[in-house]
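Subject: Sanity check before I submit

Could someone independently write out the structure tokens for this chain? I want to compare against mine line by line before I put it in a report. The sequence has 246 residues.
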Amino acid sequence: MLEFGVMNNAQFTVITGEIGSGKTTLLRYLLRRLDPRKTNVGLISNTPQGREELLRWIMASLKLPSEGTTPALLKIFYDFLYAQHAAGRRTILIVDEAQNLGEEALEGLRMLSNINVDKNQYLQLILVGQPQLKDMLCSPQLLQFAQRVSSDFHLKALAQDEVTHYIGFRLKAVGSRVHLFTPEACIMIAEASLGIPRMINILCDMALVYGFSSRADRITRELISEVIDDKRNYGIFPLNSNLARV
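---
Independent answer below. Compare away.
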């Protein structure tokens, strides 16, 4: 959906998902695929609340002057967009952690998108955030904003079978020729992590350390249980509280 939004000149693309679901990984994947000779990308990781502050962050992200009055900055910004479009270059603005944007800042983004007329898309915007962003955009106050979102997707947690495939994929990517985790171990990881990729990574990494130290041939359910117990008793890890101890 990210690529679709970029290639089809979507005014707004919105990607939402839980913490650790892979939103930043997707952004990095997209950025690697964009040709810097044909695309300008501004990335905002902070979350300004007001329009003026937002505009200054946008200017800085595109390496444009960010000091001056709002009218002066807007003229510089619009002139830049027109010039880049005339040269055949896309300009994409990405706002990460967009759930923290205030309504005023979101309305400011919508107003900036008014530069797009007819088939001329001078500015494309990608908003990435936690589920609160999705809830915000569904509110009546932001109806005009939501109507301009033409490409969107919500990342859900991985299902149990997807967790097994995910672990296998990660192992294969680093050269493993066998699936080191038993099916029972994968099930327990899926339950404990709630299907969130970041949590899966943490559990698997620790399990591999435990497996190496005990010279285990495979990562079993018993070994995962030991990792979970140690995390519960001695570490910091938001495990599934409903998971029974083994």
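---
OP: Matches mine. For the report I'm noting this point. Residues 70-86 form the longest helix (17 residues).
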